[in-house]
Amino acid sequence: MTDLPQRATSSRLDPYADRYAARTAGMTVSEVRALFAVAARPEVVSLAGGMPNISSLPLDVVGDSIKDLVLSQGPTALQYGGGQGDPVLREQICEVMRLEGIEAHPDDVVVTVGSQQAVDLVTRVFCDPGDVVICEAPSYVGALGVFKGYQCDVVHAEVDAEGLIPAALEQAIVSTKASGRRVKFLYTIPNFQNPTGVTMTPARRTEILEICRRHDVLVLEDNPYGLLGFDDEPRPAMRAQDPGVIYLGSFSKTFSPGLRVGWALAPSAIREKLVLAQESATLCPPPFNQMAVSAYLSNHDWQGQIKQMREMYRERRDAMLDALEDYMPAACTWTKPDGGFFVWLTLPAGIDCKAMLPRAVTARVAYVPGTGFFADGFGASSMRISYCYPTPERIREGVRRLAGVIEAEMELLETFGATGPIPGLPIRGAEHPSTNTQ
Predict the structure, then answer these.
(1) Which of 79-83, 231-235, 299-303 has the least mean pLDDT?
(2) Last residue of some domain: 299, 314, 345?
(3) First CA to last CA distance, the chain
């Protein structure tokens, strides 16, 4: 009998390591996704995830719409579609954006698989390895992962209680240019920012746009939470002031995250490149999902539904802020969002929130350490806590548990010094003090 050839073996953990593209070095598990398994345990109060609470959706209406869609338009909904997205949905997207002062033509809208894919496509179209993207500090972990995956250099510009600081942005642009590098775009979340919850003031928006025009820097405006403000009508988008802004939107926060339908609104030349990138990535965004969203918008009072969601999230925000006030040690500070999903909590310098996380999980509460929202290793003394998904009662209990863990850490800090920062990661003494207003 002929011996079968033996497959080459390797003692390395990953025998394919020397075959991967260089860009894979930037692919790492996000701080948020790494917590999913722990946070899903029923005994743990998760203040970590940013999952929309869809409990108020009229599932009977949604179910009937999807049934009618399959029966009446099944051959179209279940077939391939165009790379730019369904024309009817693109018209409806323009109506949605009009609530934020944006006047747009459906031809300039590209439907994407969530706004996350839109960030990916824009970065793919514009950025070569070593190009610079300026991001708020802190910024959305999903976007930072995209930029890292495309081998971009992220330069941070600080935020305060009024959003991105114009002087910090200008300094970041000037210093980047002085180093001989090119800024490809500014990535900003102006409304109820993820992770801080702060909102950029109208005056700041105008000043930021002027700075970017003066330095010939493109603006990428990511606005998944814009319709979820608690106290005011939707704020005018930055795109409403400047048609050169690339605007990203999503139905994940106002309808269904599971359908993965978002969009990019871009100047026509950029739009063409995005469509080509979309076609090479997915061939087309899923027609069924798009048509399901379109049917929902056509057959249901979606603006009334958003109003219900705003009230639900406002109740949860209030529960979190009240609990923070009641339970947190005086040395802690936090933001006070007027919309969206998140609060940014900062602890005394010397406490490492990532090192503290296992002890918090033991106390049956979860959060996201602040380091995940920086590209430069900062954020160790801060964390993102979310109020969007748990009930008000669970939020209050979760904050109570978290406060107990923090008090224990502060006692350890007072007795023994710093609680074990990860080697090599710097800790800012008072990170973004103007952001963390109590």
Answers:
(1) 231-235
(2) 299
(3) 78
